[in-house]
Design goal:
The chain is of the alpha+beta class. Helices cover about 30% and strands about 25% of the residues.
Amino acid sequence: MSNEQLSDLTQPQRDRLAFVELRVRFIGEIRRQDLVSRFGIQSAAATRDLALYKDLAAGNIDYDPKGKSYVLGPEFKPVFDFPPERVLSWLTQGFGDGEPVRLKAWVACESPSWLTHPDLDVLAAVTRAIHQECPLAIEYHSISSGCSDREIAPFALIDNGLRWHVRAFDRKSQEFRDFVITRIKQPKVMKEAKVEPHEASNQDIQWTRIVELELVPHPDQPLPEITEMDYSMQDGVLRMKLRAATAGYILRKWSVDCSPDHSLRGPEFRLWLKDALALYGVKNALLAPGYRSPDQAKGEQKRDI
């Protein structure tokens, strides 16, 4: 599809074709009803849009009569140049899925840039595997163990504030783990295979467990009422419910002092975890600033004696 062909279309048409491409590339399929529901158009118009995209981008989509849907074609080449932030926003928040256009801001606004962006082709394979509930064969690059071939059963994306992970069952280690998406190469959706019952998300204890945390102004802060205002605290407490699998990431992102004696010092530590025992059994609690497991604390007490 050339720029000239795109320019001949109306903006609403381009938005709908962009939506077709997003759905097929990152979810793996699209039906007429998806267009009808998203844009409020008639079925006949949705049929025309799908036919138009198929004509303009030959090889990008194929019709699957068995599933009565259009699926990713073997010769897929993206037509629309979506920024990674836009795609991740669409995948995780479900809006902003029209053609990517830069609009003039109503007010001056700056937001910090991401230092890393996942490759969109890799991300697309990951999200298709999640949606289609298929295993994914990958080449994974780890700092500790180098490059290895793995089969994983992915089921969710995780934003840890610094980079994107995919939560998955790892058939090599036989554990549920987080995989950094930028370290995944050569992903291949295993369409003919299936995710086994013990590999499903409902078997992931760290994913299904919800931890309740109470964050308070750090006792070292001279004006705790300012912190209460900044975090909209109720009665001086910010209460959070998090998946155990994400707790360590979030506590690190917000520089929450998780030491039992609020011993961390520095202007970044404006919050303190009131009860560190709430993190007991949370595997990634080691990421939380100052956190010491009960076993570590006992060992330190013995050394002090």
